[in-house]
Design a protein that fits this description.
The chain is α+β, with helices and mostly antiparallel strands. The chain is built from 13 helices and 21 strands. A hairpin with a 5-residue loop joins strand 8 and strand 9.
């Protein structure tokens, strides 16, 4: 009789945990997924980036994505009303409204044949993906609340199920518990992001006028006149649109308003957007997300690793969350399968995963930091044919293969020039969210 219940115990059944379970099951690895909630569950984060498609293809999940008829996402749009200062001027060839549109098919993406990704109802998507992992052979247990882990020569995952306290004996543990970060919290590896302290309040609307033309079904990012603040607009389906306000937490706390009142006061700073929202019907209660950017100092250790949001969470301005979760599972599963085969589950066996994810997350982080420091610069670069495809590569989610993408170096250099030149026409619109936009923290 085996000394273990499973080779690998996975904490969490969201996209990272489900993908990890699916990859391992396909590789013939015995694994279980322990999920605290009962799916379907409501969850924010409804828009994907194209790098997710590789994982769906690997795991034979693309037919199911199509069967669910999730809205197709062909690109992204960033807007600022001409009435919104400080963008109401013509700078260096920029249009007064600073609008930028990109389509994913402008750049060929290796390993991705389709020219679109998806907007998803996360409740429906997460359930379907977890069920798919189960079909592939991962054992899935819902309503299981993991209370802690035992590491060392005899790893265990301890959990509550109903009124009982139980444990699962495994050869190694993968933490995919999302922002709960079970292992990161237990091992005191979680640290608050030194730069980002964002706050989001969001809901769904029915009957919102998304506009006309091919860009109507894009994800839209609408700049607000509040520094480092924006609104997302994401099609869900059947005329339902997710809308969320993201700003610095201090702006919300300083307003002393309820989250509903704060949402509307932010939206009404964009009259064009507010007028359309006020004609729509709200179909979900307001929800909030706060203090959600953090780092984990160590992704891996002897007999364990962390993936997805359990390893790192950064601001969602470019819809990176699910993509990072899926890709982390893709890279991690390779190291885990090889380590199990070789009988070596030491930290050193997971080095490829660790290095790859740190590289990719740092590129995302630097991109987001540059954006918040001077978002008009982002609009300038994405509109410039010389740099457009390099920026598009980042927006497609291909961030794991180059240590320092040249376009990021150029953007950083431009920000430094603006910072050091008080008379520069962009100097007064430098964001104050990042006093140092180029930290090495991951």
């Amino acid at each position: 009789m085996s000394d273990y219940d499973f080779d690998v115990g996975i904490i969490g059944g969201g996209p990272a945990g489900a993908a990890m379970g699916a990859y391992l099951a396909k590789a013939g690895v015995s694994c279980c997924i322990l999920e605290r909630e009962l799916f379907p569950r409501e969850h924010v984060g409804e828009s994907l980036v194209p790098s997710s498609t590789r994982i769906f293809k690997d795991l034979d999940f693309l037919p199911e994505m199509e069967a669910h008829r999730f809205p197709r996402k062909y690109g992204a749009t960033w807007t600022s009303s001409p009435a919104v200062r400080p963008y109401a001027m013509n700078w260096d060839g920029l249009d007064p409204d600073c609008r930028a549109d990109i389509r994913f098919d402008e750049r060929e993406q290796p390993g991705v044949e389709q020219n679109y990704t998806y907007h998803v109802d996360r409740g429906e998507f997460d359930l379907a993906f977890l069920q798919h992992a189960n079909k592939l052979g991962a054992e899935v247990y819902e309503g299981v609340d993991v209370t802690g882990v035992v590491l060392g020569d005899a790893p265990e995952i301890r959990y509550r199920f109903g009124r009982g306290e139980r444990s699962a004996r495994v050869r190694m543990i993968v933490d995919a518990s999302g922002r709960r970060t079970v292992l990161g919290s237990q091992l005191k590896l979680k640290v608050k992001d030194p730069l980002f302290d964002q706050y989001a309040v969001h809901t769904w609307f029915e009957g919102f006028d998304r506009g006309d033309g091919p860009a109507a079904e894009n994800i839209h990012i609408h700049f607000l006149p509040l520094v480092n603040s924006w609104v997302w607009q994401i099609p869900i389906r059947d005329g339902v649109t997710s809308v969320g306000v993201v700003t610095q937490r201090k702006n919300f706390l300083g307003s002393k308003e309820s989250r509903e009142a704060f949402f509307w006061s932010c939206v009404r700073s964009r009259e064009d957007l507010a007028a359309r929202l006020e004609r729509a019907r709200q179909v979900r209660p307001f929800k909030e997300e706060a203090d959600y950017s953090y780092a984990i100092t160590e992704f891996t250790g002897d007999g364990f690793m962390m993936i997805g949001d359990a390893a790192r969470f950064v601001d969602p301005i470019f819809s990176t969350g699910v993509s990072i979760a899926l890709n982390s599972a893709r890279f991690a599963s390779r190291d885990v399968a090889a380590a199990l085969e070789q009988g070596d589950l030491s930290k050193a066996s997971f080095g490829t995963y660790d290095r790859t994810m740190r590289l990719g997350i740092k590129n995302w982080y630097d991109f987001i930091s540059v954006y918040y420091r001077l978002n008009v610069l982002f609009t300038h670069f994405v509109q410039n044919p010389k740099y457009r495809l390099d920026v598009l590569k980042l927006l497609q989610g291909d961030v794991y293969d180059v240590a320092q993408p040249p376009v990021l170096d150029l953007m950083r250099a431009k920000v430094r020039e603006v910072e050091q030149t008080p008379g520069h026409m962009w100097h007064r619109v430098l964001g104050d969210l990042t006093a140092n936009a180029f930290t090495d923290a991951v």
